[in-house]
Amino acid sequence: MQFGIFTVGDVTADPTTGRVPSEHERIKAMLAIAQKAEEVGLDVFATGEHHNPPFVPSSPTTMLGYIAARTENLILSTSTTLITTNDPVKIAEDFAMLQHVADGRVDVMMGRGNTGPVYPWFGKDIRDGIDLAIENYALLRRLWDEDVVTWKGKFRTPLQSFTSTPRPLDGVAPFVWHGSIRSPEIAEQAAYYGDGFFHNNIFWPASHTEQMVNLYRQRYAHYGHGTPEQAVVGLGGQVFMRKNSQDAVREFRPYFDNAPVYGHGPSLEEFTSQTPLTVGSPQEVIERTLSFRDYVGDYQRQLFLMDHAGLPLKTVLEQLDLLGEEVVPVLRKEFANMRRAGVPDAPTHSARVAAAARETTEDTKEVTQA
Question: Which terminus of the chain faces fewer neighbouring Cβ atoms within 10 Å, N or C?
Answer without folding.
Answer: C
